[in-house]
Amino acid sequence: MFPLGLLRLPDVKAINVKLLIFLTAAFAIGGTLKSCGVADRLFSLFVPVFPQTFSPAYAAVVLLTVVLLHTVLGSNITTMSVVVPGLMSIGAGVAPPLPLMFLICIAVCSQFLLPFHHVILLLGEGDRCYSTHELLRVGIPHTALMLFAVFLLYLPWWRLLGAL
Question: Could you tell me which residues come within 8 angstroms of residue 26 by beta carbon, excluding any fewer than 6 positions away?
């Protein structure tokens, strides 16, 4: 891009090196957890908790599992790279794959407590647009709202469409 004149030396100053390191680590953590077997071991602990048929209770266990792991693992990139394969294998033959994948996506994308849970939030906090305390104050009710939305909006809608 430099030879084409699209970037100049002053443009390099806009690069957020800390964010690039964070993203590299987030991608690496997910792959590492999968390749060394930690992800499989982790999900083997969750298998007994899941109901044998897809139901609102099954959806609740999926959501709570994803929220718990997202809170612990941190970034949504890391969480998705670990959770999607694990829960899709647990749910094989029990839960319809499309709604299961959407439940995982909704939980990961809607839940946050701290800035590192989403890159966009991390950028805003880094630019001092808001504090970690403000995110925590908004994130807790937002997570609860996500749970209500799944049961009052998404599951009925998917049932109406015939996906469940």
Answer: 74, 75, 77, 78
**Are the C-beta atoms of 42 and 80 separated by less than 8 Å?**
no
The C-alpha atoms of residue 35 and residue 41 are separated, in whole angstroms, by 11
Domain boundaries, the chain: 10-161
Rounded mean pLDDT for each run of 10 residues along the chain, 164 residues in total: 78 75 74 74 79 91 91 82 83 88 92 76 72 84 92 95 88
pLDDT of residue 125: 67
The backbone torsions φ and ψ at residue 55, rounded to the nearest 5 degrees and listed phi first, read -155, 175
Q: In which region does residue 129 sit, left (phi positive, over 0), alpha (psi from -120 to 50) or beta (all else)?
A: alpha
Contacts for 65-70 with beta carbons within 8 Å, 24 or more apart?
66/103, 66/104, 66/107, 66/108, 66/111, 67/107, 67/111, 67/143, 69/42, 70/107, 70/108, 70/111, 70/117
Cβ atoms within 10 Å, residue 106: 18
Rg value, the chain, Cα: 19
